[in-house]
Amino acid sequence: MSARELTAWAMALLCGGIGACCLLAILNAGLDAPPQPAVLAAGGAAIAGAIALEVLLSILLPRQSDAVPDERERMILARAGHWSGLVLLFGVLPALGHYAKHANGNVMFNVIVLSLCVAALVEYGAQIVLFRR
Known about the structure:
Layout (H helix, E strand, L loop, with lengths): L2 H27 L7 H24 L1 H5 L4 H32 L2 H28 L1
């Protein structure tokens, strides 16, 4: 497995765990509840986890992690990023529409956070699938 595929697996697990915690916190409080502390802390956890994973992989695989992506890898990363962007758009636009109609920023915030989690999962999942082809 290449370093980029290992990174995709690790980030998919990280984003899946953080996304599940956010989803549970939002569902327990209700979609129209104000932002929950667990959801706010998830942003910091995602950043710290991503940095820790990248450092760990660069220590374990120094040559592969420092390599420039080849043509195939660039296309995979671009395609996965495109799909992720579409998923994010699919979540953000209804949230903005709901806010424009009902002026409820809490629903908009919660839907956008969940959309970010799903978009990250789609990106890393697509990378895994495309690297495996």
